[in-house]
Write a structure and sequence with these properties.
The chain is an alpha+beta fold and 492 residues long. Helices cover 28% and strands 22% of the residues. The protein is built from 12 helices and 25 strands. Strands 2-5-1-14-13-10-11 form a 7-stranded antiparallel sheet. The chain has a 6-stranded antiparallel sheet with strand order 15-16-17-18-20-19, with helices on one face. It comes from Arthroderma otae (strain ATCC MYA-4605 / CBS 113480) (Microsporum canis).
Length: 492
């Protein structure tokens, strides 16, 4: 258990005898100021592995075969042997207060002795396969997770995480907790602490990355609750009828959106349909340079039971790995709790991107079918927009019209009237985009009705006069602001 007052956000716990003895030697040799990156229990503890290791060393030095020395201590020598097995027990800690010796480089680990490199975790000199400057930790610019990187090109400078070798120059993201880190022969269990999930740590990390590294991190948790394959799920991005969308990262530092859905007899058709649509659109977008930047793309599909077959007795989960990951959507532009302060030129540029995405769909005879602010993603701090969520998308041949679908699909306040009243075509998307354009440019929806006024039945139809009046006012407002409304309207 970590000390209650600790502000360490991560720790490296020795997990094999070599690492435990190295930690013991480090703690024995370190002066009090140098122990700032270490935690040890107040008293030494007996470790059988340490005892056997030391007895093995004695045997090698004596050059005689003393087999009794490698067995459990007998009663005559028990006290002496136990004393030989006593070591300092604890772990290495990573803090932002104090910072590493050189923040731009991060937290370094090695034997030291290399000119110009002040090592944060100085390992014992007796370790044969540890280099002077062996590895370093720092924060990943895209994910905010800590990464470990090998800093020596020597063949003997071995470094691995969860059994995967870390190559020179590679930033291996520590996106899960715990993970097994091996530095040479030293094994450690890497863990994020409880402090790594606090607002205080998030603020300190952001300041550290902006001031020391010159980068603004994507806000992600350091202590994730769930993994799906190699992907660690962090921030929730949205929720739909069939699943929840979150951001996720892997050990390479890649950031994606992951849509986790129930895969059962009830949902299998819709899930498979969405996969087929995404696959087809991805193929179409690959043909022309630039088109693939208009839509979210399917990178991979992961099945909980490693098979594309749902369970007939219960349900499995399936994860769609999607890229790029949008950290915000058009819904955030007008949200009272998370309002993006974009000026009109930026909003117009983002809307233009969305229209280009819609034009791509319509050019290839596809209807999106559920356009709304939450289904248009914002990338790179407001420099680009992409279309999301193709669960309602339909392919439509030229001249073909789809039959009306009262009460099915879409989102009430963005549905075109003809979707409820008559056969329809791709123009339903144009209607939805017009409503979205008004909302993001003027800061409010042109009408906000609890029910769909175009559905049959008196309680729906009584809302039509209210809608007609709101529609008239919206058109007047657009015409009154010719410097905003018309240029944007003419983009499509």
């Amino acid at each position: 258990m970590e000390p209650p007052s600790s502000n360490a956000f991560a720790k490296l716990i020795p997990s094999n005898t070599a690492a435990k003895l190295a930690f013991h030697a480090m703690y024995e040799d370190a002066s009090q100021p140098d122990k700032k990156n270490m935690f040890a229990y107040p008293e030494q503890q007996y470790d059988k592995g340490a005892l056997l290791y030391r007895l093995q060393e004695d045997k090698a030095h004596e050059e005689t075969d003393n087999s009794d020395s490698l067995t459990d201590p007998d009663t005559d020598t028990e006290k002496t042997m136990k004393q030989r097995g006593m070591i300092w027990v604890g772990w290495l800690t990573l803090h932002l207060h104090p910072k590493p010796n050189k923040p731009t480089r991060g937290w370094t680990i090695g034997k030291g002795g290399r000119r110009g490199v002040d090592i944060d975790y100085l390992l014992p000199r007796y370790l044969a396969n540890i280099r002077a400057y062996h590895a370093r930790f720092n924060f990943h610019g895209k994910t905010g997770y800590l990464f470990i990187s090998k800093t020596s090109n020597a063949i003997s400078a071995e470094l691995s995480v969860n059994g995967k070798d870390v190559n020179g120059g590679e930033q291996f993201s520590l996106n899960q907790s715990p993970m097994h880190v091996r530095v040479g022969d030293l094994g450690f269990e890497f863990q994020y602490t409880d402090y790594a999930s606090t607002d205080s740590f998030y603020r300190d990390r952001q300041v550290y990355m902006e001031v020391s590294l010159g980068i603004t991190p994507t806000p992600t948790s350091s202590k994730s609750l769930r993994c799906f394959g190699e992907w660690t799920i962090s921030n929730n991005l949205g929720k739909g009828a069939y699943g929840k969308v979150s951001s996720a990262t892997n050990y390479k530092g890649e950031v994606v959106a992951i849509k986790v859905m129930e895969y059962s007899k009830r949902t299998a058709y819709q899930v498979n349909y969405e996969i087929d649509v995404l696959t087809e659109l991805h193929k179409l977008a690959e043909v022309k340079e630039g088109d693939k930047e208009r839509l979210i793309r399917l990178k991979d599909t992961l099945y909980q039971n490693r098979d594309a077959v749902y369970s007939p007795t219960g349900f499995e989960e399936i994860a769609l790995i999607l890229e790029p990951a949008a950290s915000a959507t058009f819904a955030h532009i007008t949200s009272p709790t998370y309002k993006l302060n974009y000026d009109i030129p930026v909003i117009a540029s983002l809307f233009h991107d969305a229209l280009l995405g819609l034009n791509f769909l319509h050019t290839h005879n596809w209807i999106h079918g559920d356009l709304k602010p939450g289904n248009i993603g914002i990338l790179n701090n407001g420099t680009r927009a992409i279309l999301l969520d193709f669960g309602e998308a339909v392919r439509l041949e030229p001249g073909e019209r789809l039959p009306t679908r009262p009460g099915r699909g879409g989102t009430v306040n963005y549905l075109a009237p003809e979707r409820e009243l008559q056969d329809y075509d791709r123009l339903i998307d144009v209607w939805s985009m017009g409503v979205i354009g008004f909302e993001i440019l003027h800061g409010h929806h042109p009408w906000k009705l609890a029910l769909n006024p175009w559905r049959s039945g008196s309680r729906f139809e009584t809302l039509r006069p209210i809608f007609n009046e709101a529609y008239r006012k919206a058109i007047y407002k657009i015409e009154s602001h010719t410097n905003i409304g018309f240029p944007v309207a003419n983009m499509y």
